[in-house]
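Anyone able to model this chain together with CKG?
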Amino acid sequence: WQERGAAVSVRQEVDANGQTVSRYIKKGVRDFSFGNTLGEGSYSTVVFATDRQTLKEYAIKILDKRHIIKERKVKYVNIEKDTLNRLTDHPGIVRLYYTFQDEQSLYFVLDLCKGGELLGVLKRMTTFDEECTRFYSAQILDTIDYMHKRGVIHRDLKPENVLLDSGMHVKITDFGTAKMLKTPRVDSSSNGILPLDSAELPQEERASSFVGTAEYVSPELLTDKNACKASDLWAFGCIIYQLLAGRPPFKAGNEYQTFQKIVALDYEFPIGFPTVARDLVERLLVLEPARRLQIEHIKNHEFFDGITWGPDLWKQKAPRLK
Ligand SMILES: NC(=O)c1nn(CC2CCNCC2)c2c1CCc1cnc(N=C3C=CCC=C3)nc1-2
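re: yes, here you go
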């Protein structure tokens, strides 16, 4: 398994001649003190950790090798590592600093998000007001734009996977079910790299394995098993709706009934749902992926009036949650 990153710890040792020498040793488990468990997956555990030397705090994702192999999840582990290696310079992505392993486990050293999950904050607030919804959905959209421009489809966007850092800014996580589109072609007319959207790609290049969480799965994943960039924008529409309504647009007694609602576009807006936000959600929750609003048009939608896209969006103070 190809490790990533060259974080090293420096140890002073005395050699055979009594000389003090510096030994550069790749960081390992002994370099950290571990604390609370932050989350458990089917083959991984995420734990709070502090680097004993630098005292920097991290979230370390610990993956059990035997379990990964037994559950045939090696592909997902490599997808997550390769995806995070491609998405290294955006404030909205949980950063992978480096990896290491021991006999039993693989270790991903990741950003710590002290603000927890967006879903947890939403549950405490019941609903967000328009200002908070605008701020958080703008940071999510800016991050989706960055992912898509680098040929990555998340495929499981939901409020549980939108974390918050100590400044209550967005950090998107859990790329184990992401899809990396084929190597993007260089396009002279754009800013260098312009990966083909899978809607333009030949059939074999569209993501074909079924993933996602029922309430946020797009209709195309349920009908022809193909995810594309627009699938993330369907989930984005569901998230905006949920922040303002306090519940996802499609939710039924069981997954099958939820799927039926999705493919029938069977959802309503609660009384009092803001009109401008409703217009945006209606242009995202469109059954035909090619007819769904694309990112540049979403950014120009009236709902995002007042948002300054780009680095400034991440420098401003998060609005007080009310
Ligand atoms: N699957 C992951 O990669 C992952 N899972 N978690 C914890 C999960 C808890 C359930 N909902 C989804 C996230 C994390 C990460 C990335 C790295 C990461 C960084 N910081 C936190 N912080 C948390 C703080 C309080 C509660 C939950 C998470 N969590 C994670």
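Confidence is low (pLDDT under 50) at residues 185-205.
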